[in-house]
Structure formats: C-alpha cells, structure tokens
Give the backbone structure.
Amino acid sequence: MAGNAENDNSGILPRTLDVIFRSLPNIMEKYVFKPNGRNGYFIQSEEQAKQDRLIIPLPTYSITKRLVETVSAKSLSLSRCCAVFISYIEIYNDMCYDLLDETLTDERLFTSKNIRIDSVSRKAYVEKIKEVEVESCDEAIEQFLQAQQRRKIAKTFQCFITKR
C-alpha cells in the first residue's frame, strides 16, 4: 500500500496523496480549520490560528526520496479554501485504536476508543480520535509511517496476550 522508492513502485497511498494535494487549489494555512471530534470541523479566527501555529512544532521528514505522481484531478474553484486532515485507526478484536496517538503504549487494552453514531447526521465516528492537519503529501506519509510503527508494536503485543 505504501510502496517503496527503490523500484518504480511508489504505492497507492503516496500516489493518491500526490493527486489530492495537486488537485486542491487553495489550501489554507494550518489551524484555521479545527476538528470537532465528530468527523466535522469549525473555523477559528486568524489570531487563534496564529497562536496555535506558534505552539505546535514544525514537522521533520525522514523521507529522503520517493517517486512523485504528476497527475491531478479536475480542481475546485479558486474561490474555495480547504484543509486536509488525516486519522488512522485500527480495529482489532472488537477494539478500536488511534494509531496517530503518541501516547499509545503496549498497555493497549486501556486505550481503546469508542465508535459512536452522531444523533443528528447519523454518521459513524470514532470518539476522541486524533485528527492531524497536513499541508503536503510528505507530511501525510510521515504521519502514516509513524502510525505504522505503533501498529507493529500493538500487533505483537496483542498476539502475545492471545497466545498466538
């Protein structure tokens, strides 16, 4: 799914993210849109967004080389603005885990998240999940790779508990 950069196989995830970011005409600066925790967002003032940008450190990338997809889809109107948020969950043995949560430890049984249904929109969402705003394909891939590391740790711990 993630592919690799060594042999012309960049994978579906990086290629899809490249197309998404090439197709969005007017990506807002970070923290103007803020997730509401229910698959939605609210818009905060520019002053609040500036304060949030000062608090959060700039991302560092470990991706040194990769193939970049050059295709773009029909773009939106320039009068629209947008932001891209990602989340990454794993459902294992009827438990739901937030893999973007840095506090996720080997004691996973105590960190399971609940899946809820919004009473108004009737849409399912994972309660208290971390939604990370990303501004580029590389930033999204970096978040994905960090979550994959948490997933590997969790999988071996779960297998240990269930004696597999």
